[in-house]
Design a protein that fits this description.
Number of helices: 1
Distance between the termini: 53 Å
Helix content: under 10%
Strand order of the largest sheet: 10-11-12-13-27-23-22-17-20
CATH class: Mainly Beta
CATH topology: Beta-galactosidase, Chain A, domain 5
Shape: globular
Structural class: mainly beta
Largest sheet: 9 strands, antiparallel
Order of helices and strands: EEEEEEEEEEEEEEEEEEEEEEEEEHEE
Radius of gyration: 19 Å
Number of domains: 1
CATH architecture: Distorted Sandwich
Length: about 300
Amino acid sequence: MKTTDSTPLSGTQYTLQHGAYTASIASIGATLRYLRHNDRDLVVPYDAEEIRPSFRGAVLVPWPNRVVDGKYSFNGESHQLALTEPQRSHAIHGLLGWVDWTLAEQSTASVRLTASVIPQKGYPFRLEVEVLYTLDDDGLTTTISAVNTGGQAAPYGASAHPYLVAGVGLVDDWTLQVPASSVLQVTEDRLIPTELTGVTSSHFDFREPRVIGDTFVDHAYTDINYDDGAATVSVLAADGRGAAITFDESCAWVQIHTADKPDPSVSRLGLAAEPMTCPPDAFNSGSDLIVLEPGDTHSVGWRLHAL
């Protein structure tokens, strides 16, 4: 007998509310579908009945960004991941971005979702992962926790993929601040990491707030200035309002992307600001790579908020 599934294309919806903030979490990818402050969007939203555009708002585990050619070695064994970014021949943004996460707990202002990374070709490790979204007076806090429930050590990294919105207009019109003094250079065609350089006197330098203009960025920043233990990446519109993401030293990297797309109608609508525990291709470089021994748990988080 045929049945019809009325679940939205983006998954089950969980609406959160606290004070001036509202948020919607979609179960596919444990994705932040929208975040609003007094009905002003703080991230680029999408419709519940829409398949999520790319990785917009998704949780990125067990690695953020790219594994070059999907190949890496770990503990003396070589692995080949599926190439989920075929145009550049990389494995991108982990394994749970298109998984339908399971509800564990929900209240008016919070939701906890869980998912499993099962042993598979290219990643023969078992993880149990949960993400907790919580709204309060200070914005939306996201906490990602993973435990290695398998019998061998596992390489691991974590991030998420919100696109900040300062106000009306495009990225070009907004003022950006990134409190980081180094940037990871990449090749132009495949965005393969090459070398770490200082941002001084380059178009990558946003330590002091400045208008983005036509600057293109799709790079990971590090050597971050944590003021009193926290760093904030922010975008501001001309009226002085904006959006920001704040994180601590557990994220030594932040990916910034001006969201350039071939289609002008969807290009540069928001600024991707992704706090990351490790840089792109950390499975190969080993830079800031987390190794979860059997039974180990790792947690990391950040806060999205209005300015």
